[in-house]
Design goal:
Layout: H1 3-35, H2 38-41, H3 45-58, H4 68-80, E1 86-87, H5 88-95, H6 103-115, E2 120-123, E3 142-145, H7 147-152, E4 160-163, E5 170-174, H8 181-185, E6 187-190, E7 195-198, H9 203-214, E8 230-235, E9 244-248, E10 250-255, E11 258-263, H10 270-282, E12 290-293, E13 301-304, H11 311-321, E14 325-328, E15 334-336, E16 339-341, H12 345-386, H13 399-410, H14 423-430, H15 434-438, H16 442-464, H17 466-481, E17 490-491, H18 499-502, E18 507-512, E19 517-519, E20 526-531, E21 536-541, E22 545-550, E23 555-556, E24 561-567, E25 575-581, E26 588-594, E27 604-605, E28 614-621, E29 629-633, E30 643-646, E31 653-655, E32 661-664, E33 668-673
Parallel strand pairs: 8-17, 26-31
Antiparallel strand pairs: 1-3, 2-3, 4-5, 6-7, 8-9, 9-14, 10-11, 11-13, 12-13, 15-16, 18-19, 18-20, 19-23, 21-22, 21-24, 22-27, 25-26, 25-28, 26-32, 29-30, 29-33
Helix pairs in contact: 4-5, 5-6, 9-12, 9-17, 12-16, 12-17
InterPro entries: Topo_IIA-like_dom_sf, Topo_IIA_A/C_ab, Topo_IIA_A_a_sf, Topo_IIA_dom_A, Type_II_DNA_Topoisomerases
Catalytic activity: ATP-dependent breakage, passage and rejoining of double-stranded DNA
Active site: 140 (o-(5'-phospho-dna)-tyrosine intermediate)
């Protein structure tokens, strides 16, 4: 056998060896699973649980805008609906036939729906969304469907059904809601791996936007909160993740030292708002004398300020340091076709409007089919009675003979009908009572048929102009239910409030110049000024260095501080005059400079950097004005003139990094500004 043949044989045998190894690995894996049967049980547990929470608990469906628990509550209310109020405990118990998660989740979901005052008509103490007070127990409060829900949410003819969790009952897969309910109600839920937060929108504006969309026009849609307030939607991002909505409370000035909060931000209660105000007051960020909560059906929080306070500055501080301004992050997520989708509120409205249009079309088609069926049977009945066809069956002895005889009697008139006459039609004719035949009125029968024909023509027109019919439907909803649902949240654009501009200088700041520390806690040292924790200070040291730091309990600013004061970023008005010696025996320089931008806590050198440099003179001029200085040299120097004047106003103002102009090469003893009497 040749070498080539041997190589070919070896090559052919390799797959058999590999396949044997694969089979062995699979066999070992099966054997391992057989020894540990729980291993196979946990393979997909996480995905199954995550899918269940997303689809069946936390995220609403697009078609009806409801979570499963909300849908089951509405279905139960419909089954119990007789026009009267039902105990919420009874509704919760009835809903448990469909919802497997217990009464607590059903009760809390129902209270939330009732407080939004759209789908459920409530009676009793359902809590207060302004104060955060909870609803009474389920046995003490009552509920029924609202007229809006009866008209918009239900239609058994267009509802698709499924078995309940235990197979004993049927429940709707989705309710045929003919309104963008999800945008009106809003929704919030946390699932596994994703979250949903859709903010509520205004009822009338949703209808207007739907009409604009159906007519092919552009629209804008922004949230509207039940608690009112003022909102900035410039970063709303159409409700998608990454967007931000700023919501502020509404203040009213009652007197010089008293203000009232009339509307609170979304997501807050008067209790949580007051707690945030008291917390800011205790931390020294704001100053208040007294706060009272007089909220009932409308929010009213009275804040009394101490004498000397400025109301406008206090309001800005309340926005900055308390929950009087909150940031809300939307994250629109819906379920469609058993899959979560992240889409904006504009797209939600478009799809919802298309869904409403499709439901209206389906209802019109069902109505037309029913009208055609009614017209068909009314016509058959009229022919059957007027032509006395019922007499032809008097001598028939079998049921088949009866059916055949009636068919034969109707044959001459079948061309007048719009469809074939079936055995079911004939059976219905035989069920007509003698009393109806004896009192049959041909004129009334013709009028009824004409009325049906008129309704059929109207239904066909609506089907041909479906968009017009859908817009008219939305406008009728607005006319019926839009009163009292005007926008409550005002839309505005907010300017950024800087903490340093509104912080109250409530603490005394001290400085130890020799050791180089400043802070609020150095109460045994020199009092510098009053400052807040947001103020920044600039400190110059005798070696020609300086730094900027924020006020705190204790901060090191550099040893031997010769000047320290409050500093503001971007300050170009304050001009600093400086005379310094370069090194231990170098010449002395003079310069004028500004400090408008620095890195906080970084040390900067104003000299040329030589070791032993020293500042002879430093003066800060907040108004930019300067005055001449008197320079006195050391007595031992060789200069003929030991004292001279220098006008700093002749120098050009430069940056802090400039070395300056040479003032003198001789050693300086002192340098001071002119006294007022010397000017």
């Amino acid at each position: 056998m040749s070498d080539d043949s041997q190589d070919q044989l070896d090559f052919d045998e390799e797959p058999e060896e590999n396949s044997t190894e694969l089979v062995s690995a699979e066999a070992e894996e099966k054997a391992g699973n057989a020894k540990a049967p729980l291993a196979t049980s946990y393979q997909n547990w996480f995905l199954e649980y995550a899918s269940y929470v997303i689809l069946d608990r936390a995220v609403p469906a697009l078609l009806d805008g409801l979570k499963p628990v909300q849908r089951r509550i509405m279905h139960s209310l419909r089954e119990l609906d007789d026009g009267r109020y039902n105990k919420v405990a009874n509704v919760v118990g009835h809903s448990m036939r469909y919802h497997p998660h217990g009464d607590a989740s059903i009760y809390s979901a129902m209270v939330g729906m009732g407080q939004r005052n759209l789908l459920i008509d409530t009676q009793g103490n359902w809590g207060n969304t302004l104060t955060g007070d909870g609803a009474a127990a389920a046995r003490y409060i009552e509920a029924r469907l609202s007229p809006f829900a009866r008209e918009v949410v239900f239609n058994p003819k267009t509802t698709k059904w499924q078995q309940s969790y235990d197979g004993r009952n049927k429940e709707p897969i989705n309710l045929p809601v003919k309104f963008p309910l999800l945008l009106a109600e809003g929704c919030e839920g946390i699932a596994v791996g994703l979250a949903c937060k859709i903010l509520p929108h205004n009822f009338n504006e949703i209808i207007d936007a739907a009409v604009y969309y159906l007519n092919g026009d552009d629209f804008e849609l922004y949230p509207d909160f039940e608690t009112g307030g003022i909102a900035d939607f410039s970063n709303y991002n159409d409700g998608l993740r990454g967007g931000r909505v700023l919501v502020r409370a509404v203040f009213e000035k009652l007197s010089k030292y008293q203000i009232a909060i009339r509307e609170i931000p979304f997501g807050c209660t008067t209790g949580s708002l007051i707690d945030s105000i008291l917390s800011a007051n205790s931390k020294g960020k704001i100053k208040i004398k007294k706060i009272e909560d007089n909220t009932s059906d409308k929010a009213e929080i009275i804040i009394t300020l101490p004498p000397g306070s400025e109301i406008d500055a206090t309001i800005d501080a309340l926005y900055l340091f308390t929950d009087c301004q909150v940031s809300v992050a939307p994250n629109a997520c819906i379920i469609q076709d058993d899959t979560p989708h992240f889409i904006g509120v504009s797209e939600i409205l478009r799809r919802s409007a298309d869904s409403v249009k499709a439901l209206l079309k389906r209802e019109l088609e069902i109505k037309l089919a029913e009208l055609e069926e009614k017209w068909h049977f009314d016509s058959l009945e009229r022919i059957f009675i007027e032509e006395r066809i019922y007499r032809r069956i008097e001598e028939c002895e079998t049921w088949d003979a009866v059916i055949s005889e009636i068919h034969a009697g109707l044959d001459p008139f079948k061309p007048q009908l719009k469809r074939e006459v079936t055995d079911e039609d004939v059976t219905r004719l035989t069920e007509i009572r003698i009393k109806r035949i004896s009192k049959f009125n041909s004129f009334k029968a013709d009028e009824e048929i004409k009325k049906t024909e008129k309704e059929m023509r109207a239904t066909k027109r609506n089907l041909k102009s479906l968009t017009k019919f859908a817009t008219a439907y939305f406008e009728s909803l607005k006319e019926k239910y839009g009163k009292g649902r005007e926008r409550r949240t005002r839309i505005d654009s907010f300017e950024t409030i800087k903490a340093a501009e509104v912080a109250l200088p409530t603490q005394k700041l001290y400085v130890n110049r020799e050791d180089g520390f400043m802070g609020f806690s150095l109460k045994k040292d020199e009092l510098l000024c009053e400052a807040s924790q947001f103020d920044e200070l600039i400190a110059f040291c005798s070696d020609g260095t300086f730094r900027v730091s924020r006020a705190a309990d204790k901060v090191f600013m550099g040893k031997d501080i010769i000047h320290i004061d409050l500093w503001k970023k971007g300050d170009e008005e304050t001009i600093y005059d400086m005379v310094y010696r370069d090194g231990a025996r170098g010449a002395s320089y003079v310069k004028r400079f500004i400090v408008n931008a620095v890195t906080r806590d970084k040390v900067y050198d104003l000299t040329r950097g030589a070791k032993g440099s020293k500042v002879h003179y430093l003066k800060a001029n907040p108004d930019g004005k300067t005055r001449p200085i008197k320079v006195r040299l050391t007595p031992s120097c060789s200069a003929r003139v030991k004292e001279f004047d220098f006008d700093l106003g002749e120098l050009t103002v430069k940056g802090r990094g400039s070395k300056g102009n040479v003032l003198t090469k001789y050693a300086i003893k002192t340098a001071r500004p002119f006294f007022n009497t010397e000017l």
